[in-house]
Amino acid sequence: MTENVADQVLAAVRDLLPVLRDRAQETEDERVVPAESIKSLQETGLFRLLQPASFGGLEADPLAFYTAVRLVASACGSTGWVSSVLGVHPWHVGLFPPQAQQDVWGADPATRISSSYAPTGKAVEVDGGHQVSGRWSFSSGCDHASWVLLGQIVTDQANRPTDFRTFLLPAPDYTIEDVWDTVGLRGTGSNDIVVHDAFVPAHRSLSFVDVAKLVVPGQELNHGPLFRLPYGSVFPYSITTPIIGMATGAYQAHVAYTRERVRVAYIGQKAAQDPFAQVRVAEAAAEIDDAWGALERNMTDLMGCARAGQPIPTDLRLRVRRDQVRGTGLAIKAVDKLFENSGGRALKTGTPMQRFWRDVHAGRVHAINDPERALSMFGGGEFGLPVPADAML
To answer: How is the chain split among helix, strand and coil, in percent rounded to 5?
Structure first.
């Protein structure tokens, strides 16, 4: 794919931002991204950026995708979050056997997929595949998808664990239960997926053992460097990027507001003249830049290895996870600083600052953002200790 096509997608996303910003409160009130927003995002090409070219996708550099997500999240946190998770799933499906990709996109290349990876259901090995049942939570954007990816520990007939796999199920095999009512990311519609004893054929599941080794069935069809990247690098950044985008939106809203704000308690002084407010803005800007700069460096290095046909070294994978969790932390730290600097009017329902503040903290509790595990793995690696097996590395 040429850079020009990615630039066209990003230009279309930028044109859409005022509409998404105007719909941010509606998105929160309805607890789901409006269908009109999803349709418009589909038309920009955002959801095709990481989709295999073999099924009508753009197979773009991941930086183009993350840039698009950051833009959307700067206008509406919930819409950015949903755009990111729905947008990264075509890449994950591209790792599955070619027949699974055909099942999803053969009739409609615009088919969207949601997910829930925490292994809270049951999957039993049977002839030709697996029997899957149970309840999976936090499937963001599931109302806008017709397939779902579900993570699950596999057991044999004697209930002994044998594998950890991702299963790909079509909408007729599951139901959605509306349970999403939260203080942050309210518009993501991250509802529960319920499965009652569905048969999943073998070609519609993927072992994390293969994913971790970077040798997957989808590479038979998708030969490009995009599909030689680690899952533990691509997916975690799809969670951190919208948080960086929310911090960007909070920064933009705060600067615009502070330029005109008058601090009554300080005898009518313009807030912009307060040197301490200036320092906080400078610190927040630096934190956001640091989070984004690390992402850019990491994706450039990852794609450099992949394009050269070189193995992705463990130290790079460890660094990416280190920077990903730190990127989330830096973005939240910036938003906290801006929120504290915004005064009491920022508390008013409907203002962007309080919504971004709630949304970044809601995004922080995603399991992929737990810093201790990622930082401990990096530190152990630096000390020459064995790196533990981890699906997110």
So the answer is: 60, 15, 25
pTM value surpassing 0.90: yes
- The SS3 assignment for 114 reads strand
Query: How far apart, in Å, do the first and last CA atoms of the chain sit?
Result: 27
Question: Around 385, how many Cα atoms within 13 Å sit in the side-chain half-sphere?
Answer: 11
Of 245, 193, 393, give the one whose Cα is nearest residue 313.
393
β-pair partners for 147: 113, 170
Residues 6+ apart with CB under 8 A from 369: 239, 240, 243, 325, 328, 363
Listed residue (1, 7, 2) closest to 64, CA to CA = 7
How many CA atoms within 13 Å lie on the side-chain side of 71?
20
Please name each of the domains of the chain with its CATH number.
3-110 (1.10.540.10), 113-210 (2.40.110.10), 229-382 (1.20.140.10)
Q: pLDDT digit string (tens) for 62-115?
A: 999 999 999 999 999 999 999 999 999 999 999 999 999 999 999 999 999 999
- Cα torsion 362, 367, 369, 372: sign: positive
Backbone angles phi, psi at 348, to 5 degrees: -65, 130
Interatomic CA distance for residues 92 and 379, integer angstroms: 28
Sequence-ordered list of residues with C-beta below 8 angstroms from that of 195, at least 6 positions apart, any chain: 121, 132, 133, 134, 135, 136, 150, 169, 173, 174
Q: Give the model's confidence band at 364: pLDDT under 50 very low, under 70 low, under 90 confident, else very high.
A: very high
Are the C-beta atoms of 99 and 200 separated by less than 8 Å?
no
What is the distance between the alpha carbons of residues 180 and 192, in angstroms, rounded to a whole number?
Answer: 8
What is the C-alpha separation between 39 and 255, in angstroms, rounded?
Answer: 31
